[in-house]
Each structure stands twice: as C-alpha cells, then as structure tokens.
C-alpha cells in the first residue's frame, strides 16, 4: 500500500463514522443554506483567458499541525489566531487540513477559521466521495481539494462538477505529466503541482518547473509544498507559479505574517510579467 492509499483508507473509515451521525439529506440542506462561496479563482489572480493576469504572487497559507513526512510540526492551539496572522500577512486563501489521523486537523478547526476570517477557505482533505464536498460547503468552504492520483477520471469530473454546482471551485492537484493532462481535460481552472510525491513522500522542487508549462494560461497554477525560504518562492514564481501553497514553513515560524510578506515580495519580484 502507498502512503496515499493508506491515508485514504483511514479517511474512508472516518467518513463512514461521520455519516452515521448525520444523514445525507441533512448535510445537503445545510450546504444549500450556507452563505454563498467566495470566488477563490479571482482571489488567486485568475482571469477568464489568463491575459488580464497581474504579476502578484499569491499565497495559500495552510493550517497544518503534523504530517506523515515530518511528524509533529506545531501545536496550533488556536487555529483562528493563526488564520488572522495569515490574513494580516496577505494570504489570498487559507487552507485548513481537516484530516484527523495523519495531520491532526478537524472540521472544528475549519469552523474556527471560518468564523475568524472572511478570506476564501480551502477544505484540505482527501476528497473521494460527494458527501465530503457537500460537507465542505455546509461548513462554509469555498474550495475543495481533488488529488488526481487518488481519483479516476469519472469521479474527478463528478466531484469537480459538484463543487461548482455548489458555487465552489476545486484545487486539482497533480504530480506527473499524465496527471496534469487529466486535470486539464477534466476542465480544472485551479491546478496545483505538488512537488511532494504522495506515494513515497519524496520532495523534488524541480518537478514544478518540469510540469508548469503544460498548464494552459487560463488556469491558475499553484506550486505546492517544499517552500523553505524566499529563495524557494522566487524559484517557483520564476517558473510560472501564480500562487504557492505553504504549510510547514509558516506554522514553524514565530512570525508567520512577516514570513508571508517576505514570500509575497520575493515571488512577486521574480514573476515574469505575464504568462504567454
Ligand atoms: O505533508 C505531507 O507529509 C503529506 C503526506 C501525504 C499526503 C499529503 C501530504 N501533505 C499535503 C500537502 O500537500 C502539504 O500539506 C502542502 O502542500 C504544504 O506542504 P509544506 O509546505 O511542505 O508543508
């Protein structure tokens, strides 16, 4: 079993336990009654054909307590306080991990962050069932994560379609050429290239430069994982990242708002004037 398969097996067990406590009709009516989703595509600098794109590097800042690759990262006793720091530092989107077993997250963390900030929020989980998309909207999410390596084309399209029907968008995450091509064919508008291989946990930052050029300019391109400092951010930006997704470097920093400002400045300075 790969690391990703092992995580998803646990996610499915936890999902069934939650489903035993609330029926599908109830979660759907909560989702339909929730305030409208925020426009995460625009918040990440997206424009319909890519030509009106500005040169600001956006940051998706993650609330991440622990991980399979690094173990414990930060206690984060008050996720809402961290979210306010992220907002003050200029984050465009906040990602909240809700997977419990391997990342120490929860929907309670998500709710706390939702109540604290008005930015678009990504419910960061291993989405494999429509119930999780309904659940995300019911909790006020604006974006869900769809990992191409975890989904066949049928479910990928179904989950992306459902997210949009509910007014949300999806961050469609890739790691290989084939996955980028599948994300593009599925109609993804926000495409992440994760430099961490979720099957082996190896991190190879050069993977971003290799894959980013396959993504059409109409999509927002996010470089995910592996940021240690402003030089890494500049490298991703120079190779075409519209945004970066950062967890560890921010949660380990004593002044995450300052770190964010440094990352945005370094990435914006390094970004080419416009993606062709
Ligand atoms: O972070 C992990 O170890 C991990 C392992 C298996 C599946 C997913 C994993 N992480 C999810 C992520 O994509 C990262 O949390 C995110 O990109 C931020 O990465 P980083 O800045 O390196 O913390």
From TrEMBL:
Its EC number is 4.1.1.48. Gene3D superfamilies: Aldolase class I. Signal peptide: none annotated. Residues 4-262 form the Indole-3-glycerol phosphate synthase domain. Pfam families: IGPS. Keywords: Amino-acid biosynthesis, Aromatic amino acid biosynthesis, Decarboxylase, Lyase, Tryptophan biosynthesis. It is an enzyme of class 4 (lyase). Belongs to the TrpC family. It comes from Arthrobacter halodurans. CDD domains: IGPS (cd00331). SUPFAM superfamilies: Ribulose-phoshate binding barrel. PROSITE patterns: IGPS. GO terms for molecular function: indole-3-glycerol-phosphate synthase activity. This is Indole-3-glycerol phosphate synthase. The keyword Lyase applies. It catalyses: 1-(2-carboxyphenylamino)-1-deoxy-D-ribulose 5-phosphate + H(+) = (1S,2R)-1-C-(indol-3-yl)glycerol 3-phosphate + CO2 + H2O. InterPro entries: Aldolase_TIM (IPR013785), Indole-3-glycerol_P_synth (IPR045186), Indole-3-glycerol_P_synth_dom (IPR013798), Indole-3-GlycerolPSynthase_CS (IPR001468), RibuloseP-bd_barrel (IPR011060). Pathway: Amino-acid biosynthesis; L-tryptophan biosynthesis; L-tryptophan from chorismate: step 4/5.
């Amino acid at each position: 079993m790969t690391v990703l398969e092992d995580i998803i097996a646990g996610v499915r067990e936890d999902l069934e336990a939650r489903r035993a406590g609330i029926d599908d009709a109830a979660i759907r009516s909560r989702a339909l009654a929730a305030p409208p989703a925020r426009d995460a595509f625009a918040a990440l600098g997206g424009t319909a054909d890519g030509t009106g794109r500005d040169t600001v590097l956006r940051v998706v800042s993650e609330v991440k307590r622990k991980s399979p690759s690094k173990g414990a990262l930060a206690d984060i006793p008050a996720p809402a306080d961290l979210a306010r720091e992220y907002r003050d530092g200029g984050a465009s989107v906040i990602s909240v991990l809700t997977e419990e077993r391997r990342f120490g997250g929860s929907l309670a963390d998500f709710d706390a962050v939702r109540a604290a900030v008005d930015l678009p929020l990504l419910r960061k989980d291993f989405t494999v069932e429509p119930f999780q998309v309904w659940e995300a909207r019911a909790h006020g999410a604006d974006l869900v994560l769809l990992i191409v390596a975890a989904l066949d084309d049928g479910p990928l399209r179904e989950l992306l379609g459902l997210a949009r029907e509910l007014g949300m968008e999806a961050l469609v995450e890739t790691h290989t050429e084939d996955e980028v091509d599948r994300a593009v064919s599925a109609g993804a508008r926000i495409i992440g290239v994760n430099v961490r291989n979720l099957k082996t946990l190896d991190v190879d930052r050069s993977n971003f430069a290799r894959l980013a050029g396959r993504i059409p300019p109409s999509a927002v391109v996010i470089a995910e994982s592996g940021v240690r400092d402003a030089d890494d951010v500049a490298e991703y930006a120079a190779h075409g990242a519209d945004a970066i997704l950062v967890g560890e470097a921010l949660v380990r920093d004593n002044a995450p708002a300052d770190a964010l400002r440094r990352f945005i400045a370094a990435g914006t300075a390094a970004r080419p004037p416009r993606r062709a």
